Amino acid sequence: MEDEQVWALIGVKLIPQKDVGFDSIAEHIYRFPQARTVYLVSGTYDLMVLVVCKTSHEIADFVSQKLAPIEGVQETVTQFLLKRYKEDGEIIEGREEVKRQPVTL
Amino acid sequence: MSTNSRGQRRKYHISQRVNQVSPSGIRRFFDLLASIEGVISLGVGEPDFATPWHICEAAIKSLEKGYTMYTSNLGMPELRQELSRYLRDNYNLEYDPDSELLITVGVSEALDLAMRAILDPKDEVIMPDPCYVSYNPCVILAGGTPIMVPANQENNFEISAADIEARVTSQTKAILIGYPANPTGAVMTRDKLLQIAEVARRHQLLVISDEIYAKLVYGVEHTCFATLPEMKESTILLGGFSKTYAMTGWRIGYAAASREIIAAMTKIHQYTIMCAPTMAQVAAIEALKSGEDSAAEMVEEYNRRRLIIVKGLNEIGLPCFEPKGAFYAFPSIKGTGMTSEEFAERLLIEEKVAVVPGTAFGQCGEGYVRCCYATSLADIEEALSKMKHFVARYQTV
């Protein structure tokens, strides 16, 4: 995790729009640089958006001022990332390092 | 010293056989290493990867189910069947899982069993110099006599059949080889192995072939000695899981040989070990069934590092032949005018980089050091950078 950054996963529930579907809303969202990742998903929420800002306050502002007002967005839920264990196949450092014997023949 | 019931001083004797085994020639180096912090070690002889998780998981599941009892002395039937399939698929070799395969506590135990099963007092075993540190002691502890055949950088550390044959006497029982090799990284070509097979056939010698690094080959094919014409019956093939699947700590390996030899090895094994660890055997089954992709990924990573370290060593003035197997580079340090041990000690003290003096592996290792590249690229690059400064200070040639 880069310094001075806060990450949050936002679940976005959409109202499907006639002749448009979800793609144009997704595009509207992913054009924001703060939206680092945008997925269409099954389940309770339609889009999962990974948002990265400098502070939690900025995330809250982004959600309330940029994301929620988008036409077609019915509801959002914001989950702040508290700890990263594994990302993109890599286990994050911080786990106890298992040391080998310094010399084995 | 202690006193017996009559007040006489009694001395406890260590056996002559054990006294005959030389103490580690690099004890001082080990002690020095233990006293210095922050060392970048190129002296480790095992993978820097943890065992792939699916293999660990198989063992954990078996523990949860309560598989904690002894297995058959020979090893779990399922493991021997998988192993038989593996040897058939990889080498087109047929070994009967019920009588020609023995699961052991690493190749280390298999080697020890092989020596104890075949050697009578004064029997001779011919082997390369330099070679893995256990070869010599295992022969001595079994009552035999090691006969060393020199190998050198000019021949890419491959020993010649002619040199072996020149040392055959009426006492010679076996030839012991281990290719791909520790410490040199050398791989023997099929042609050269055929010549050795011819010597073994001509003199009716057994061949013990330690192929623990069989899967760690780069741009060449590994030749399994037992596949050579007329060699299957007289070869004791040793293999394992430590290097291929990063399972060094599990202590699991195998021997494949004729019925008679496996029976003899099993006789010793059943009294001294009973069976290899059960959970390690379960892990080995999983490795054989599903570990090929994980193994291939590790080999690819070793290869990347191999290219960097060999190029780097040559560039800084430590000429190094290109090792095609295992994960060791064996550069010459003769240009510095130091002995191997001096080089390793001074490098450790002055630059905090650990390499193993070649003399740990035999007299013909003098003038060389072993650098293991089973460590991160970052460590390899930093070690090379420090070694460059060191060599620049001492280079005489």
Written overview of the protein:
- The complex is a heterodimer of chains A (105) and B (397).
- Chain A has helices spanning 23-30, 56-67, and strands spanning 6-14, 35-40, 47-53, 73-80, 86-87, 90-91.
- With 105 residues, chain A is of the alpha+beta class.
- Chain A has one domain: 2-Layer Sandwich (Alpha-Beta Plaits).
- A four-stranded antiparallel beta sheet of chain A has the order 2-3-1-4. In chain A, strands 5-6 form a two-stranded antiparallel sheet.
- In chain A, β2 and β3 (47-53) form a beta hairpin.
- The longest helix of chain A is centred in the middle third of the chain and has 12 residues, at 56-67.
- The radius of gyration of chain A is 18 Å and the shape is elongated.
- Chain B folds into two domains: 20-51 and 294-394, Aspartate Aminotransferase, domain 1 (Alpha-Beta Complex), CATH 3.90.1150; 53-290, Type I PLP-dependent aspartate aminotransferase-like (Major domain) (Aspartate Aminotransferase, domain 2).
- In chain B, a hairpin with a 5-residue loop joins β1 (2-3) and β2 (9-10).
- In chain B, α4 packs parallel to α10 (278-290) and α11 (292-315) packs parallel to α13 (377-394).
- Chain B starts with a strand and ends with a helix.
- Chain A binds chain B through residues 98, 100-105, and chain B through 30, 33-34, 39, 41, 43-46, 48, 50, 132-133, 182, 354, 356, 360-361.
